[in-house]
From TrEMBL:
The lineage of its organism: Eukaryota, Fungi, Dikarya, Ascomycota, Pezizomycotina. Zn(2+) binds at residues 392, 396, 415. This is Aminopeptidase. Binds 1 zinc ion per subunit. The record marks 499 as: Transition state stabilizer. It comes from Penicillium argentinense.
Length: 971
């Protein structure tokens, strides 16, 4: 359990009485909320039989024995009276404007397992006109006599006057729905067309529209009535009526087209899908064009087309994603030893998208900044992002789509693995090349983004694993494998635990087993459960068999227990003692919170140049290790391969800080992250952290500088209200980063290394934001040339973020308005994200008010509202205005955000977690006490934990931090 549940009491009560007869409401579509490797194998690959693709073949291993035996008591699931085998979904009479309604018929081949007068499906924002049960020969067996809705559980009950006997039947449902504008279910996205759109492209006011779907986790039910649970797999036939000038896409290739019900319309019918979960079904309609490449490998004798679709005028920006995609399909086919199982692979850029991307089988959808790159206009960091997100989503085509978690509690099986293997692919194609922010062999755990849940690069690139550490150090954390009673809970566990901790634990296991052994086990797992569902234990069994080790035994605590350990080291003559305990950011773990004994790979580097490596593991609460440090030098957790903190004695930490030349990049990042976290928890000190940071003045690696930057930003944030400490830390940052910024300079060179580009941006921002006079002056000079139109090239594409932010922060309304205007008129795919984030750096309260009004206006897409919260939260002098605005304008804030719970939760969590004041924490708790917080209840618990941690840290370390800064000439 999570400790404090994320379901409102009213919801739980409603679920417990879900079988009561529902009062039939008039279905409303107005205000419902969405719930929410290497090339190393020479063994023969496993081609999947054509019959399994096109005939919906379901192997006997549809579910694992364990999954079939799961008692229903721990899950709130649909009644098991009927199981879907195939859906035929037909959508027609789409109102492309006005009401945006549509009509539909779904025919579901069912296996009725026992006599029943009622069939219950999932349905939300759908009105069912009628339903009937037919025999396989088409004769009517029963017609619905009553249709009732339970809005809380998102179900529709179809009642029949006579029993339907156990048999194979066809359930036919006539329904109507709405193409909503809340980025969930079947929805519409508005955009300004770059090219001349086709005449029948939907248009309202100054915007054109495209249509697409987003069904994960539980929103297929918003498009058509269905059995919307991941282990109720079926095949799908899909057809849709669209204008003849529009392109329709779905999971499978087009099978046929025919004239529609009116002139100018056509029905597009698609081939049958493989057996899959409802959340993977997808379709899209729009004024699309595409770029295409064919796979180099042959699949059943021919290459597969890989395409990236965009709205008209944008396809050239999709070429980099295409380059990544077609090679990644081949790579994963090789390392997973199973050929890509569909006859095509499409990627689609969607203009309004709450997530970052979605792995729909054969039709992966992305927000534009995760798949489009405009050479010469886009910031290079987006190139790195695209390579990774494309690989992550394509990994899901096997790990998640071909083999699906049995239930939402094992979401990490999908996301943790896809995160790890996504970087494996990036490293394979770009080993050490400029695009690569991190080599996944060298720094695999330092992930940059979480594609489904984090849509912009708000996590510093060297900070991904530190974000997982941070969330998992709170009492509000949860195990990687989370108990999920009802699927409506699952949106709030799409977080850094499922993705980043999950992937870090997978990486730790792969290092221990050896990558070849690990991937061989994964391939066996995929083969054994293809087209079915599987559990964590199924994966452990496959890996145990491949390795000959008890993977269950040493991995289960990592998956099923909350938190992670800190390994505390004590030194004695000729030996060290190591002790593990649960790490909490508050440093006050109670005995009942510290009962887990983790298997911890120690990875002890010692000897001359740290050349000796001891691979033993700590399997007890404590142990003594002899022969370590005899020569006076050692390092625990080689290359940060283990997911744990290390607490060295102060003298050892200082010695490591003076021997940075012997440490790998990963070692440095881990050393910095551990020291910072231990200072917060009270197991270390801020003076010890600052002394360590001082030793990095000569550092040249971007990833290490990114960790330095985030560490100092957090210190400056927490101590921001004490002017003396704030000024001291500002000077400390300036003297640390200034010389490096001066050395790297402003000018970009042709074919410059990617990491140098990123380092230049980072150092200019660090030095500028800490008051480096010449950096600030140059940033202002370049901005003025750009803003006045004298020289638009004065602000380099890759320096927009740094220069815009510096000028808004140091300037006034003129600079703010110039960046605001850039937001409104930019045609750069990343321009709006960069501009919106920069505007939130203003130090003028009046402009903060204007900024927040702008963020909540229709000028900013709902998908981007949280960017405003992130920017202001990082603005330590102004962040309190965000909280005051939320309180004062709650009705309008709630109205704007409540259409999409994923966005709502993100806004609350990211916007309010930076405070370091107990009083504000109490005020937040009081304000939300009587609010309906079901969509973001867990976010509020995280906010409370963060504020409590920050405030306690500030109160404890502020005096000693000021004392150290004074003693060293910074204050």
């Amino acid at each position: 359990m999570w400790g404090r549940r994320s379901i409102a009491a009213s919801r739980r009560a409603a679920l417990e009485v879900r079988h009561r007869v529902a009062v039939r409401p008039s279905p409303s579509f107005s205000s419902s909320f969405p719930s929410r490797a290497l090339r190393l194998h020479s063994r023969p690959k496993l081609p999947l039989p054509a019959s399994s693709l096109h005939l919906g073949f379901t192997p006997a291993r549809f579910c694992s024995a364990e999954a079939r035996m799961m008692a229903s008591a721990d899950r709130d699931t649909l009644p098991d009276v009927a199981k879907p085998v195939n859906y035929h979904v037909s959508l027609f009479d789409l109102q492309l404007g006005g009401s945006w309604g549509y009509k539909g018929i779904v025919k579901i081949d069912l296996k009725v397992t026992r006599a029943t007068k009622e069939i219950v499906l999932n349905s939300k924002d759908i009105e069912v006109q009628g339903a009937e049960v037919l025999s396989k020969d088409g004769s009517q067996l029963a017609k619905s006599s009553d249709i009732t809705y339970d809005k809380t559980s998102e179900r529709v009950a179809l009642k029949f006057p006579q029993e339907v006997a156990p048999s194979d039947v066809v359930l036919v449902i006539n329904f109507t729905g709405t193409m909503n504008n809340v980025m969930a279910g079947f929805y519409r996205s508005k955009y300004k067309s770059v090219g001349q759109p086709s005449a029948d492209t939907p248009k309202e006011d100054d915007f054109n529209y495209m249509l697409s779907t987003q069904f994960e986790s539980c929103d297929a039910r918003r498009a058509f009535p269905c059995f919307d649970e991941p282990n109720l797999k079926a095949t799908f036939d899909f057809e849709i009526e669209v204008p003849k000038g529009q392109t329709a896409l779905s999971n499978m290739p087009i099978q046929s087209e025919r004239d529609g019900s009116h002139t100018g319309l056509k029905f597009v019918t698609f081939q049958k899908t493989p057996v899959m979960s409802t959340y993977l079904l997808a379709w899209a309609v729009g004024d699309f064009e595409y770029v295409e490449a064919m796979t180099e490998r042959k699949y059943q004798g021919k290459s597969i087309p890989v395409r990236v679709y965009t709205t008209r005028g944008l396809k050239d920006q999709a070429r980099f994603a295409l380059e990544c995609a077609h090679r990644t399909v081949d790579y994963f086919s090789e390392i997973f030893e199973i050929e890509y199982p569909l006859p095509k692979a499409d990627l689609l850029a969607v203009h309004e998208f709450a997530m970052g991307a979605m792995e729909n089988w054969g039709l992966v959808t992305y927000r534009t900044t995760a798949v489009l790159f405009d050479e010469g206009k886009s910031d290079n960091r987006y190139k790195n992002r695209i390579a990774y997100v494309v690989a992550h989503e394509l990994a899901h085509q096997w790990f998640g789509n071909l083999v699906t978690m049995d239930w939402w509690n094992e979401l990490w099986l999908n996301e943790g693995f896809a995160t790890w293997v996504g970087w494996l692919a990036v490293d394979h194609f770009y080993p050490g090349e400029p695009i690569l922010l991190m080599n996944s062999y060298r720094v695999p755990e330092v992930y940059p983004i979480v594609p489904e849940i984090i849509p912009i690069d708000i996590i510093p690139q060297a900070e991904g694993v530190q974000q997982a550490f941070h969330l998992d150090s709170l009492r509000a954390s949860h195990p990687i494998e989370v108990p999920v009673r009802n699927a409506l809970e699952v949106d709030q566990i799409f977080d850094h635990i499922s993705y980043l901790k999950g992937s870090s634990v997978i990486r730790m296991l792969s290092v221990h087993l050896g990558r070849e052994t690990f991937l061989r086990g994964v391939a066996d797992y995929l083969k054994s459960h293809a087209y079915g569902n599987a559990t964590t234990n199924d994966l452990w069994s496959a890996l145990s068999k491949a390795s000959g080790q008890d993977v269950h035994g040493f991995m289960d605590p990592w998956i099923r227990k909350i938190g992670f350990p800190v390994v505390t080291i004590a030194e004695e003559p000729g030996q060290i003692s190591v002790r593990q305990s649960r790490f909490l950011s508050t440093g006050d773990a109670k005995p009942e919170e510290d009962e887990t004994t983790w298997w911890i790979p120690l990875g002890i580097k010692s000897g001359n140049k740290l050349a000796n490596v001891d691979t033993r593991a700590l399997t007890e609460k404590s142990d003594t290790i002899g022969g370590v440090g005899d020569d006076g030098f050692y390092k625990i957790n080689k290359d940060l391969s283990g997911f744990y903190r290390t607490n060295y004695p102060p003298a050892r930490l200082a010695q490591l800080g003076q021997s940075l030349g012997l440490l790998s990049t990963e070692d440095k990042i881990g050393l910095l992250g551990d020291a910072a976290a231990l200072a917060v928890s009270g197991e270390g000190t801020t003076p010890a952290l600052l002394a360590l940071l001082e030793g990095f003045k000569g550092e040249q690696n971007y990833l290490v500088w990114s960790q330095l930057s985030s560490t100092l930003a957090n210190l400056r944030s927490i101590f921001s209200q004490n002017d003396q400490v704030a000024d001291g830390l500002k000077k400390f940052t300036r003297e640390l980063a200034g010389p490096a910024a001066e050395q790297i300079g402003w000018e970009f060179k042709s074919n410059e290394d990617y990491l140098i580009i990123q380092l230049r941006k980072l150092l200019i921002a660090m030095a500028g934001n800490s008051g480096h006079d010449s950096i600030v002056a140059e940033a202002k000079r370049r901005f003025d040339l750009w803003a006045t139109g004298q020289d638009k090239s004065a602000v380099h594409t890759n320096l927009r973020s740094a220069i815009f932010s510096l000028n808004v922060s140091e300037g006034g309304r003129k600079e703010y308005e110039a960046v605001k205007e850039e937001y409104l008129r930019t045609d750069s795919v990343d321009g709006k994200e960069i501009s919106l984030a920069a505007m939130g750096r203003t130090k003028d309260p009046a402009l903060v008010q204007d900024y927040l009004d702008f963020v909540f206006s229709d000028k900013v897409a709902i998908q981007d509202i949280h960017s405003g919260a992130v920017s202001l939260a990082a603005n330590s002098k102004m962040r309190h205005h965000l909280w005051e605005y939320i309180k004062t304008n709650w009705a309008s804030v709630e109205a704007r955000l409540s259409s999409n719970n994923v966005v709502f939760e993100r806004f609350v969590r990211m916007g309010l977690s930076k405070f370091a004041d107990h009083q504000i924490g109490d005020d937040i708790a009081s304000f939300f006490k009587n609010k309906n917080t079901g969509a973001y209840e867990r976010a509020l618990v995280i906010v409370a934990d963060n504020i409590r941690t920050n405030a306690s840290y500030k109160e404890r370390d502020q005096p000693v931090t000021l004392e150290w800064l004074r003693a060293h000439g910074y204050a």
